[in-house]
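Query structure, 528 tokens:
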């Protein structure tokens, strides 16, 4: 019997036309992203909040530089994590160990209320754990598919939907509890779901067959040869199809070029947790009363409930396919959803009983995740259709859309006086900026993950994912440093000038990528 997908017999059962194992990874990554983005939403806000409000009272510049270092280092450690998995542990053990270390990191951050060093220890553990987790779970996704075409692109886009479902819930719930109840409660909540994600993955990992085991046990990682029929998933020693050296080198160069251009994207995009969060906190009118408050409460309820219903529906479909074989994993996953629903209902009830609404500054971060949940299926279908553009064109469009989003913020900021430390700009500008940023992200990020998987030599997939994430190290570090000049630029020029920098640079990079399209297609040697 020929298997359509890699992994075990159970993995041949499909959810939404994709292997069940994809959704085991979907929910594992969802809870990891819940923890990461939930903490990230609070980091700068916690640091700049006054001591009277239980924050640390840091200057904006110092907070944004620490934010830049943290968000950059979580992308440099994956290169080491990819090497460890490729050479020593295999992907699956690396994912589990990384999840465990991150769980301990969130616990440590929750203890910052007792002593400041716990906060820094937590950041270090999160950086280390992420290095083991991030590249290797993406590598497992790639090996679920035996072909290198549209189906894998669609699979990565669905996986990316899971990433953003976690980010959506993490920013909303950790942000709300951190700002409204207590910072350490928000940090601690992030760790609870990291723990559930770890257990869910651990007790379902046999669904992957020999994918992701130690390299010595599966030297060619089962599915290494595209187009080769694997019978019963029991022959891990099939040789990899030989690729001429010049072809392999050209493809690696393409990965390098894509990685370089992603620096421009994430450099601007990651202002979301830094300067854009400060813009939301100090320059945006977030207090709503009367009808405005009621409209927001209704909108916020729909914004919360609809995506959660969709994700719960996906959960039920996975249960139908895997509960009999992986009951314990599904029980941990189901328990985490019961807790999530309980917190959401409590939050919405609490908000509806308040006379006015002050939108949390962290709330705007959920818009990116919400738009991805809403638009990812559309983009997934688009990439499978005859209208599927080339990778370089997707990258270029993503960069240009990102720049346009910052152009909206620059326009909205024109009314802010030079040197102003506070203002009351309409929320609509942030909302539309996040929409354009999201559409750009959907054109670039999941496609980038898919191209790394397709263009990399199979025995170096984990390493190449690690190198891919190094580009985000430079992007986040530069983004944090650039963002730290927000006060200097606003004082000497204007807020509109600050955001115009992030408008022009990505659009310029996108135009260059369009010019390189033909050359890059040739260098990919048939990979689409």
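Result returned for the query:
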């Amino acid at each position: 019997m020929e298997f359509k997908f890699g992994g075990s017999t159970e993995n041949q059962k499909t959810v939404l036309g994709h292997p069940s194992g994809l959704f085991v990874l979907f929910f594992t990554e969802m809870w990891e992203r819940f923890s990461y983005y939930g903490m990230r939403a609070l980091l700068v806000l916690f640091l700049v909040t006054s001591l009277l409000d239980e924050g640390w009272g840091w200057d904006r510049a110092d907070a944004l530089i620490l934010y830049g270092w943290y968000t950059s280092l979580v992308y440099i450690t994956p290169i080491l994590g990819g090497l460890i998995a490729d050479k020593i542990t295999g992907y699956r053990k690396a994912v589990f160990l990384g999840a465990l270390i991150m769980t301990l990191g969130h616990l440590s951050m929750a203890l910052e209320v007792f002593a400041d060093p716990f906060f820094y220890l937590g950041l270090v553990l999160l950086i280390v754990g992420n290095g083991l987790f991030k590249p290797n779970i993406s590598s497992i996704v790639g090996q679920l598919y035996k072909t290198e075409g549209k189906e894998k692109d669609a699979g990565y886009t669905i996986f990316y939907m899971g990433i953003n479902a976690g980010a959506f819930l993490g920013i909303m719930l950790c942000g709300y509890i951190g700002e409204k109840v207590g910072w350490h409660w928000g940090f601690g909540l992030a760790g609870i779901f990291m723990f559930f994600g770890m257990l869910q993955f651990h007790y379902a990992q046999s669904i992957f067959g020999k994918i992701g085991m130690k390299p010595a046990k599966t030297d060619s990682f089962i599915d290494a040869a595209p187009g080769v029929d694997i019978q019963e998933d029991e022959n891990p020693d099939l040789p990899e199809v030989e690729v001429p050296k010049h072809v392999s080198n050209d493809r690696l160069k393409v990965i390098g070029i894509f990685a370089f251009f992603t620096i421009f994207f994430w450099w601007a995009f990651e202002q979301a947790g830094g300067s854009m969060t400060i813009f939301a906190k100090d320059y945006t009118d977030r207090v709503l009363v009367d009808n405005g408050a009621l409209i927001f409460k209704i909108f916020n309820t729909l914004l919360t409930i609809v995506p959660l219903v969709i994700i719960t529906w996906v959960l039920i479909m996975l249960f139908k396919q895997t509960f009999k074989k992986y009951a314990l994993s599904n029980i941990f996953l189901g328990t985490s959803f019961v807790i999530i629903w309980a917190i959401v209902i409590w939050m919405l009830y609490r908000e509806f009983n308040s006379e006015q609404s002050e939108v949390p500054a962290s709330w705007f971060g959920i818009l990116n995740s919400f738009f991805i949940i809403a638009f990812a299926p559309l983009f997934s279908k688009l990439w499978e259709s005859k209208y599927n553009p080339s990778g370089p064109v997707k990258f270029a469009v993503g960069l240009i859309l990102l720049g346009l989003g910052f152009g909206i913020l620059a326009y909205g900021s024109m009314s802010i006086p030079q040197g102003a430390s506070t203002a009351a700009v309409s929320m609509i500008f942030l909302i539309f900026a996040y929409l354009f940023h999201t559409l750009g992200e959907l054109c670039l990020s999941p496609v980038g993950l898919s191209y790394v998987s397709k263009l990399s030599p199979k025995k170096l997939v984990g390493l190449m994912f690690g190198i891919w994430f190094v580009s985000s190290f430079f992007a986040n570090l530069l983004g944090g440093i650039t963002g730290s000049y927000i006060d200097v630029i606003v004082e000497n020029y204007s807020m509109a000038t600050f955001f115009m920098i992030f408008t022009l640079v990505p659009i310029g990079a996108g135009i260059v990528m369009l010019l390189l399209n033909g050359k890059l297609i040739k260098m990919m040697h048939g990979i689409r």
